[in-house]
Amino acid sequence: MIADGVLIEVRDLARHFAAGHGRVVRAVDGLSFDIARGETLGLVGESGCGKSTLGRLIARLEEPTRGQVLFDGVDLTALPPAKLRPLRPRIQVIFQDPYASLNPHKTVRQIVGLPLRVRGGRANGQVRERVLELIGMVGLDPEHAGRFPHQFSGGQRQRIGIARALAAGPELIIADEPVASLDVSIQAQILQVLRELQQRLGLTLLFISHDLSVVSHISHRVAVMYLGKIVEIGPAQSVIQEPRHPYTRALLAATPRLEPGARRSTPLAGDVPSPMAVPPGCRFHTRCPLAITEECRRTESPLRELAPGHRAACHLA
């Protein structure tokens, strides 16, 4: 159930990196969208399209070149570090590689307990009780609290990462490819954990993935990114069943299908252009399987509403 109101407002957000010799990498290039309270927005696209950079910008782990990120009405991009610090526990990140993001020299009790101790206001006994409660919420047993990260499987380590994020008491969780390195059966378990926690705690999720099939299983809405831009955004069912942008259709066609007689997809022609040499006009026109018009080559299409809440940036949509 999505609560009323908007938690995150992104306005003309951009992050450009200097690449030397006057060249610029346009990792994120002018994005605007909202995320409602209690909603899961799935963000999908090929590697290098800017998904993770966008997540880091929203968490204020990266500084934007321009634009705003409003969290509960407060512009995070305008806050100095001292004023940003009290807001940080409300925005937490779950990383792709749980082993790299967990301290190998600390036990689960210490890893999950650290955010509780940083926040303060709890006695040692209360911290221990809360740690056991949190690891139970993500499906781990109490006796796991005294173990170290290397003693767990990849899926269990990701559960520890989720518990650590929850310990801070967040309202927004940015899940950056949280199941990409896991087996399919374990992916389903982690997705179910996130769904249950969202319903129980009223969390808002930005779920980042390169896999459209994974995103469709957890998201209320889906945003599709290509070369630093959102090219389609709308309700998950609408985007999956009636994609309006040719890039979204190509991603869907590339999703493995297990049904008997299912056809193999035809890969997209050409390579993804370099973000240092973004094509003029529609960024996808160099690979688009549709009949390309002169307008496609010269003019970038804005996101246009083609169905209720469903927008796409395509001249031919």
Query: Helix and strand succession?
Result: EEEHEEHEHHHHEHEHEEHHHEE
**What is the CATH first-level class name?**
Alpha Beta
Enter the CATH topology name: Rossmann fold
Number of helices: 11
**Main beta sheet:** 8 strands, mixed
For the terminal residues, how far apart are their CA atoms?
Answer: 31 Å
Radius of gyration: 21 Å
How many discrete structural domains? 1
Q: Which CATH architecture?
A: 3-Layer(aba) Sandwich
Looking at this protein, list some descriptive labels.
317 residues; 8-stranded mixed β-sheet; 4-stranded antiparallel β-sheet; 11 helices; globular
Short description:
This protein has 317 residues and is an alpha/beta fold.
